[in-house]
C-alpha cells in the first residue's frame, strides 16, 4: 500500500488495530472511500474504551465507514486490481512503532550494554495512534491502572486545547 503511485478510489481495511486505523485514516485523508472492518466490537482493543471511541469518531468524521463486530468470510479477486470482501456482522493487536524502537533498545543492551533491559521494563513507551489528530498515552491504560487497586485520577485533554502542540492549530486539526 505504501508503494502505490496512485491512490485507490475505494479501500477496505481489514482490522481495527493500530495499523488498520492508521491506514484507514491516511487513505481517507487522501480522498479514498474507506471502509474499516473490525472483528471485535471496539477499535483498538488494547486501548481504553474512551480512546477507542474518540478514534472511531475521528474516523467517522473523516468519512470512514466503520464496521465492528464483523467477521470476514472471504476476499475474492474482482479483476482490474479490485477485490470483493464478504463479511458478516455479529459478535465475533498490532505491533506499534514505539514498541519496535524499544525492542531495538533491549537487543542493543543485551549485545553491548549491561544486559539488564527486558520487555518487563517496558512501562513508559508511548502508545500513539497515527490518525489526524493522533491520540496518545504513556504508561498503563485506565483499565490496567484500575486493576492494580490503587487510587487514581484521570485527566484527558483534547489536542486542540493544548497550547504546547502547535501542529494541530497550524494545520487546523482538533
Key features of this structure:
three-stranded parallel beta sheet; alpha/beta; two-stranded antiparallel ribbon; 5 helices; 21% strand; 174 residues
What is the beta-strand fraction? Answer: 15-25%
Along the chain, the helix and strand elements come as EHEHEEEHEEHH
Q: Helix segment count?
A: 5
Shape: globular
Distance between the termini: 27 Å
- The low-confidence runs, each spanning 5 or more residues with pLDDT under 50, are 95-99
What is the overall pLDDT average? Answer: 79
Cα Rg: 19 Å
Name the strands of the widest sheet in spatial order: 1-2-3
The main β sheet shows up as: 3 strands, parallel
- Structural category: alpha/beta
Share of helix among residues?
Answer: 25-40%
Amino acid at each position: 500500500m505504501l508503494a502505490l503511485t496512485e491512490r485507490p478510489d475505494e479501500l477496505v481495511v481489514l482490522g481495527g488495530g493500530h495499523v488498520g486505523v492508521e491506514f484507514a485514516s491516511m487513505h481517507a485523508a487522501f480522498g479514498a472511500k474507506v471502509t474499516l472492518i473490525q472483528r471485535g466490537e471496539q477499535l483498538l482493543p488494547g486501548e481504553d474504551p474512551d480512546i477507542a471511541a474518540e478514534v472511531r469518531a475521528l474516523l467517522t468524521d473523516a468519512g470512514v465507514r466503520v464496521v465492528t463486530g464483523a467477521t470476514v468470510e472471504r476476499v475474492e479477486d474482482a479483476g482490474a486490481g479490485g477485490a470483493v470482501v464478504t463479511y458478516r456482522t455479529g459478535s465475533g493487536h498490532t505491533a506499534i512503532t514505539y514498541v519496535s524502537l524499544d525492542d531495538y533498545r533491549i537487543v542493543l543492551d543485551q549485545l553491548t550494554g549491561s544486559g539488564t533491559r527486558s520487555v518487563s521494563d517496558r512501562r513508559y513507551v508511548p502508545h500513539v495512534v497515527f490518525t489526524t489528530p493522533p491520540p496518545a498515552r504513556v504508561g498503563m491504560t485506565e483499565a490496567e491502572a484500575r486493576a492494580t487497586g490503587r487510587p487514581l485520577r484521570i485527566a484527558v485533554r483534547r489536542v486542540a486545547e493544548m497550547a504546547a502542540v502547535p501542529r494541530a492549530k497550524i494545520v487546523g486539526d482538533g
